[in-house]
Design a protein that fits this description.
This protein is α/β, with parallel strands linked by helices and 226 residues long. It is built from nine helices and eight strands.
Length: 226
């Protein structure tokens, strides 16, 4: 019997986070997991041996890695997760309650940090979703497999492949936000600076909507990372 959901986790130099996430998912019998390594990391060979957990290797690039996992998926739903995410308790029950006319959607955004800055950022993200229906990939993106195939999957962009896909998904039909949060690691915000990182992300997305190419934005992003 085919799994209900196929989970695709692109990984690049983050084996420990991927192991923790797979350990969390493994007990769920209705899910299959594809961990797609873009860096030939031997540490990922430690993943639990299971017919429902597969390790794939693909050229680096989040879009290429996610498409590689989706190409082998058999689930009714595809769920794309960042390696440093943590699923909420009962997440699959919430997924089963997604309206029949919904093409896909995302989780609420939450950071795994008690700092007040984290709450400010969470509220800002909630307003972005409310106003623009524009989550990022760190909220987890789920989509019906047939819809994903009809959309042609992720475009192989060097940056903002999640934003591009979500825009096309929203145009394809009704999106749905699950009423539970997907926990995202706060380590990058702490490393880059809480509001510096968020401001940089906003600047990049704004430039993208203004017509700047993802290739050019990727070069700008790479040269300005702390």
């Amino acid at each position: 019997m085919n799994p209900y959901v196929s989970i695709v986790i692109p990984v690049l130099a983050d084996a420990e986070s991927a192991e923790r996430l797979v350990d969390q998912i493994s007990p769920e019998s209705a899910a299959e997991v594809f961990v797609v390594d873009g860096g030939s990391d031997p540490r990922l060979d430690r993943l639990p041996a299971s017919p429902r957990v597969r390790l794939l290797r693909a050229p680096a690039g989040r879009a290429r890695q996610m498409n590689a996992g989706a190409a082998l998926a058999a689930g009714e739903w595809l769920l794309f997760l960042h390696a440093d995410s943590r699923l909420p308790v009962g997440w699959i029950d919430h997924l089963r309650r997604v309206p029949l006319d919904a093409v896909g959607g995302w989780f609420r955004f939450a950071l795994d940090d008690s700092a007040w800055q984290a709450r400010v950022i969470e509220h800002g993200v909630a307003w972005r979703i409310r106003l623009f229906q524009l989550p990022y990939g760190d909220q987890g993106v789920f989509v019906r497999r047939k819809v994903f195939e009809a959309l042609g999957g992720f475009r192989e962009l060097p940056l903002l492949e999640d934003v591009d896909f979500i825009r096309r998904l929203v145009r394809a039909g009704r999106p749905f936000e699950l009423p539970v949060p997907l926990l995202t690691s706060s380590r990058r915000w702490r490393h880059d600076g809480w509001f510096r990182r968020s401001a940089r992300n906003l600047a990049i997305v704004s430039c993208y909507f203004a017509g700047v190419s993802p290739a050019r934005l990727s070069r700008w992003y790479s040269t300005r990372r702390p």
